[in-house]
Known about the structure:
two-stranded antiparallel ribbon; 14% strand; alpha+beta; Serine Threonine Protein Phosphatase 5, Tetratricopeptide repeat; 61% helix; SH3 type barrels; 8 helices; 5-stranded antiparallel sheet
Amino acid sequence: xxxxxxxxxLLFVSVPLLASSETAKAKADSAxxxxxxxxxxRMYQSxxxxxxxxxxxxxxxxxxYYRMDSIAQAVxxxxxxxxxxxxxxxxxxxxxxxxxxxxxxxxPASEMFFVAIFNKLxxxxxxxxxxxxxxxxxxxxxxxxxxxxxxxxxxAKKVGFxxxxxxxxxxIFANIAAFRQRDHIQHRTGAVVMSPSAVVxxxxxxxxxxxxxxxxxxxxDIIDGSMREWVEIHVSDGKEGWLSRKEIEII
Length: 251
């Protein structure tokens, strides 16, 4: 009974909240359409603060910053949109356009063929899409096993058993992909350089040797974030070093 009452109360609270967020988004969209981009950014961010992260809202904020020529911020928010929904083709296209306007043209180091294929496949769908695929394929596997156990025809048994194995493999892969994406969202190691130029050091100290320079909008991965003021970073071309934490922003 208490659970029922709680569910009803949550429903009454969530419906007005969703309606309010839709109204706020319409106003933010209107501000964007009238080229009041800074105002639109504040409105979109306010919605995120109220109802939580959204790939679409991050994408819209990225568009605002792109139109304001704040390329590092645009890259940051397109990256955040893709973190939530890596299948968003518009966000990926706009991210590529924003990166084309950055100073650093980083050529990623080559990956093993199977690793590259796996990563590309995992990023083809969002976490919700992978979760749905896992549920559907699992139910399909159960139905096919019923065919194997209860249909007397030997040909149907063979087909049912073979397809059930395939469906179970899809279920396992979909679960792995969903958990992998959830881990990326919960333990964020990607970051974007926000300073116009940032000197990467050999040690976590201003007295460390200068290794190379990164410019705003460049993506880095944090491999050691245990220190308060410094982070050890990895660039996709294989370079590594230490950056001041204040020069980056976590995706």
